[in-house]
Amino acid sequence: MTIRYVYWFLSEKNANKEKPKQHATTTQELTKRIITLILGAFISLQLLGVSVLPFQNNIYVQYSGLLLVFVSICISITARISLGSNWAHAAEYQIKKGHTLTTDGIYKYIRHPIYTGMFLSCIGAELVTGSYILVAFIFILPATAYFQAKMEERILLKEFGKGYASYMKSTKMFIPFVW
């Protein structure tokens, strides 16, 4: 998971150089970024052995969780590569200067693969650590991702109009062919 955070930080700097943001980061956006970092730190601590609400775990559940984490990192990084300099932090809700609509790569199948990757990563990490926090994540993370994605889609519909509306009809939100 640390690999993803390092990649995120470096690629964000490059994306912002190539396509500058339309506005500066607000206090609300900064708060969302801090919450995301705290969640990542919390999960990382668990993976380093800090036990929080543990359940009896077995090696097969842990391997399943590890596989989910690996797949989620691949999904997230693939999505970031596809977006290139079009990427803006989810907390910012903005279209960047020179922004183009990305509908290729993993975006050919789902509209919000980064959220899918983050969700799977958190679930996988909780399976690895054997924590009952898994139950809360199963309900909270999809709901949070859904509302976040809907806000982004309103902005994208305003910017790209019929092109984005057509794209929405041909893809699922988070899971190919399902949701």
What would you say this structure looks like, in words?
This protein is an all-alpha fold and 179 residues long. The chain has five helices and no strands. Helix 2 (27-47) packs parallel to helix 4 and helix 4 runs antiparallel to helix 5 (133-170). The protein has one domain (2-15, 25-85, 102-170): Four Helix Bundle (Hemerythrin (Met), subunit A). The chain has helices at residues 2-18, 27-47, 59-83, 113-129, 133-170. The model has no long low-confidence stretch (mean pLDDT 87).
Low-confidence stretches: none
End-to-end Cα distance: 25 Å
CATH topology: Four Helix Bundle (Hemerythrin (Met), subunit A)
* Shape descriptor: globular
How many domains? The number is 1
Q: Secondary-structure element order, as H and E?
A: HHHHH
Mean of pLDDT: 87
Helix content: 55-70%
> What is the strand content?
under 5%
Work out the radius of gyration. 17 Å
Q: With helices defined by DSSP (H or I, 4 residues minimum), what is the helix count?
A: 5
Helix and strand content put the structural class at mainly alpha
The level 1 CATH classification is Mainly Alpha
Structure summary, number of beta strands: 0
Per CATH, the architecture is Up-down Bundle
Tell me about the largest β-sheet.
none
Main traits of this protein?
single chain; 179 residues; mainly alpha; Four Helix Bundle (Hemerythrin (Met), subunit A); 5 helices; globular
What's the arrangement of secondary structure elements?
Blueprint (H helix, E strand, L loop, with lengths): L1 H17 L8 H21 L11 H25 L29 H17 L3 H38 L9
